[in-house]
Design brief:
Length: about 450
């Protein structure tokens, strides 16, 4: 066994011992660390400096209580978190997730992945993530506002435009960012650059809402182009029907694909004539309804209650999972392979389990990991920070073009790095090594901090 392999295994074993029970976090560790071994074999100086051992420890974890009152006057409490994982490349940057499943393990996995994702964008941002186990579903606007105000009362002590800049994620969209921003302003001062994903009328960036979904499709577009192919007439499965899913569907359709599925946590829609995007936006964005409402209004759509999109046995050439972590198990991945999938690109973070990823690799499917393929959201967030510092707003075309270029660079970096390690089709290896290399270099240059 090489020195690098022994070193990496020791770190993995230590984390499995210390963080027992943090299933998602350990899953992310086990996905990244073995691939980084190949890089460390050529960089013994980083082993000597224990860069990886230091990197896997978050710089800071903040946990706090969030008391709030519901519409009936009940006194409620939730847990709030912010993981400030790594600031070697810039201020901590990463979304806030409001979902009942949120816990330390999920946020640590998301923040850990965010370090490499942000590094891949080539922009000056470190990695962080936060959120709460608060469930926004079924809550009134007043309840959401009171929760956001209480959450920010504590979070405001730990963030700032040059320190930590949160954005949205599951359950946190423009409405929540607006309430959080208003609360921050009242507690501290007007600082446009303290949050990203802001509405356009107070210094949000054009194309930020669309950025993750569009960026995902741009990533795949560049991969297809290199293979002398395109989205035209491709049959695409999408999961989720939130921010990422809706704009991935929009851009894939614009490039000529036929998207036939979308989902929420209660079931999925199969619409062989193609998803009606206007109807989907009306149901999900405007009226905040469930997907059953889409099926009720579109006769060609079949609603499969309680089922996963990935259990559908129909032709699928490109799969874009855009809902949540671990939604594609090994078994579901085998179904996708049988359906003829050629490309799986992750809009969500870690939607494929370790078994699913191996099934894709074994079948020769192009697997595009979330840390590369869904980096468009954070990239445009960083562009929003630049606009806020300049006190300027850029036009949609300018932001969209930069997004496309950033996604092309990320794609090329992953592919070239994978090729350097003689694994041209292994974009996961390419993403992990390229993301890690920059952070390791910066950490080493900054000394033992
Ligand atoms: P939204 O809250 O807008 O939408 C989430 C969608 O996924 C909804 O359709 C939701 O259904 C579904 N979903 C959530 N949890 C589950 C679950 N446990 N099982 C099945 N379906 C579920 O979130 P986003 O679109 O912003 O985020 C989706 C994914 O993309 C997440 O993994 C997020 O981390 C990732 N991501 C988001 C970015 C962004 O810019 N927003 C950037 C990069 C990654 P329901 O309505 O029923 O809850």
């Amino acid at each position: 066994m090489t020195n690098a392999k022994k070193y990496v295994q020791t770190i993995q074993e230590k984390l499995h011992q210390q963080d027992r029970g943090e299933v998602e976090f350990l899953q992310a560790i086990d996905e990244v660390l073995p691939t980084v071994t190949h890089f460390l074999e050529n960089h013994p100086e980083y082993i000597e400096q224990n860069i990886l051992g230091i990197l896997v420890e978050p710089e800071r974890i903040i946990q706090f209580r969030v008391p709030w009152q519901d519409d009936q006057g009940n006194w409620c409490v939730n847990r709030g978190y912010r993981i400030q994982y790594n600031s070697a490349l810039g201020p901590y940057k990463g979304g806030l997730r409001f979902h009942p499943s949120v816990n330390l393990s999920i946020l640590k996995f998301l923040a850990f992945e965010q370090i490499f994702k942000n590094s891949l964008t080539g922009l000056p941002i470190g990695g962080g993530k936060g959120g709460s186990d608060f469930d926004p579903k079924g809550k009134s606007d007043g309840e959401i506002m009171r929760f956001c105000q209480s959450f920010m009362l504590e979070l405001s002590k730990h963030i700032g435009p040059s320190l930590d800049v949160p954005a949205g994620d599951i359950g946190v969209g423009g409405r929540e960012i607006g309430y959080l921003f208003g609360a921050y302003k009242r507690i501290k001062q007007y600082d446009a650059g303290v949050l990203t994903g802001k509405p356009l009328n107070f210094w949000g960036s054009k194309v930020r809402t669309e950025a993750t979904g569009y960026g995902l499709v741009y990533f795949v577009k560049h991969l297809l182009a290199q293979e002398q192919d395109s989205f035209t007439d491709k049959t695409v499965f999408v999961s989720g029907s939130g921010n990422v899913a809706i704009y991935a569907i929009e851009k894939a359709q614009a490039l000529g694909a036929k998207v036939v599925t979308c989902s929420d946590s209660s079931g999925f829609i199969y619409d062989p004539t193609g998803i009606d995007l206007d109807l989907l936006k009306e149901v999900k964005e405007k009226n905040r309804q469930r997907l059953t409402e889409y099926a009720a209004q579109k006769t060609s759509a079949v609603y499969h209650e309680g089922k996963s999109v990935w259990s559908l046995e129909e032709v699928c050439e490109i799969a874009l999972p855009c809902a949540t972590q671990n939604e594609i198990t090994g078994e579901l991945a085998e179904i996708l392979v049988k359906n003829g999938v050629q490309i799986v690109a992750e809009g969500a973070n870690m939607p494929a389990t370790v078994e699913a990823v191996s099934a894709f690799h074994d079948a020769g499917v192009w697997y595009c990991p979330g840390k590369a393929a869904n980096a468009g959201g954070v990239a445009v967030s960083a562009l929003e920070m630049s606009q806020n510092s300049q006190r300027l707003t850029w036009e949609s075309e300018q932001v969209d073009q930069q997004l496309d270029e950033i996604m092309q660079t990320i794609y090329e970096t992953c592919r070239q790095t994978a090729a350097e390690y003689d694994e041209e089709k292994n974009l996961l290896l390419g993403a992990n090594i390229a993301g890690f290399a920059k952070v390791a270099e910066a950490m080493s240059a900054q000394g033992l901090v």
